[in-house]
Amino acid sequence: MRDFTIRPARQDEIEKVAEFIASRYFDDVFFHWVVPEPADRIATVKAYYITYISAAGSVCHLAENGAGELVGATVWLPHDLDPEVSEEVYKVVGKYAPNYKEISKKSYDSCPPMEPFYELVAVVAAKDMQGQGIGGALLKYHLDILDKAGISTYLEASTPYHGGGVYAKFGYQQCGELMHFSQTAVLYPLWRPAKKPFETMEFGGFTWWIIDRGGDDEFLIISQDILEKAQYHHTFEGVTWKDSDVRKYLNDAFRAKFSPKERAQILDEIYLLSISEVVKYFGDSGQLQSRKNRFFIDDIYNSDRKAILSDGTPSRWLLSDQGNHPGLAACVTVEGKILTTGDFVNRKSTDLFNVGIRPVMWIKI
Fold first, then answer.
1. Spatial strand order in the sheet of 328-332
2. What CA–CA distance (Å, rounded) separates 189 from 130?
3. What does the alpha-carbon distance between residue 242 and residue 175 come to, in Å, rounded to a whole number?
4. One-character DSSP codes across 278-324
5. Residues 271, 359: Cα–Cα separation, whole Å
6. What is d(CA 128, CA 122) in angstroms, rounded to the nearest whole number?
7. Residue 5 and residue 63: Cα distance in Å, rounded?
8. Distance CA 357, CA 229 (A)
9. Could you read off the pLDDT of 221-242 as tens digits, one per residue?
């Protein structure tokens, strides 16, 4: 569980945040080129970010630890930022204005013509908290807001982009030409179109999310909510999806709830997502591949994986994979973690602990 919270920055925090960002960028290769004199770097970069954070339309979010200490920050600028802001930047950076003007020119040439969009101009985490997911959580915090508004984003990464890393996990792709300023100072223009939420559809009296398409009239759907409480199997024993009670139920009693016409539209068997499919459709942070944690996947996509029963009660939902023992079945917890180690296949729901199913199927409309 992460030990930090995210919130918007206040007006009275701008100077503190700008200094924090400048200190984290002190050793960045790109800023070595921007402000080559070490004695000037923090003050110059701080002034630069004060100007941007103070600009109309700028969005700044902070990550704080349990003691209320600043441990991360992001700064986003709208595509239609007032040109006067750039002129103010050139003033506050003093003798380094020519470098900033060169950045502005190349950035203007590299920015996609699409609009509206927000540009990420800073994402940093405290040195002693790197690798704890702060940067990714900060990115997701604002991307979720922008996605709901249908707004795309752009950034210029100062580290090499090879189709991996945190930016790729969020769907960023290289666009335009690399921006070369010196042999070591290079910016990588990246673009991310707004991620649309799952489309919904009504089928058989239930609400479903469309998570994939096989053609103009074929859809892979998963129930929006947990439709029923259920066990993976009736007894504690080694069992696979093929021989599980839940598979039999989905393709017998549950299928029978649909009308004859609807049953004819179901293309194959009704099933539950696997661990890899949950990662594929709900977001991939790389934890499935790295498997540093042998027990569960706990990442920035937890909130996207949470599900509830029809009465609004949080519940685990079963997956088709075995856990790390034949008598265990993988599931998604009420917190949205993927419990790869699994839970007892015969786990029943209780007043305090719900376990249910989110059926998945291909249909032809």
1. 228-229, 355-357, 316-322, 328-332, 338-344
2. 23
3. 45
4. HHHHH---SHHHH--SSS-B-STTHHHH--BBTTS-B-EEEEEEE-S
5. 6
6. 18
7. 5
8. 6
9. 999 999 999 999 999 999 999 9
Residue 200, classed as helix, strand or coil, is strand
* Distance in Å from the first CA to the final CA of the chain: 42
**What torsion, rounded to 10 degrees, do the Cα atoms 84, 89, 90, 96 define?**
-170
**Chain centroid, CA 321 distance in Å:** 24
Contact of 59 with 76, CB cutoff 8 Å: yes
Whole-model pTM?
0.66
Which alpha helices (DSSP H) does the chain contain, by range? 14-24, 29-34, 38-54, 83-92, 97-110, 134-149, 165-169, 245-249, 260-265, 275-282, 287-290, 302-305
Six-digit token string for 32: 């070595």
| The residue type at 91 | K
Give the β-pairing of 152-157 and 59-65. Answer: unpaired
Bridge partners (DSSP) of residue 180 are 186
The per-residue pLDDT for range 182-233, each reduced to its tens digit, is 988 999 999 888 887 789 999 999 999 999 999 889 999 999 999 999 999 9
Residue type at 298 in one-letter notation: D
Which amino acid would we find at residue 334? V
**Is 104:169 a contact under the CB 8 Å cutoff?**
no
The burial of 210, by beta-carbon neighbours within 10 Å (0-12 exposed, 13-18 middle, 19 or more buried), is given as middle
- In a 13 Å sphere around the CA of 313, the CA atoms on its Cβ side amount to 15
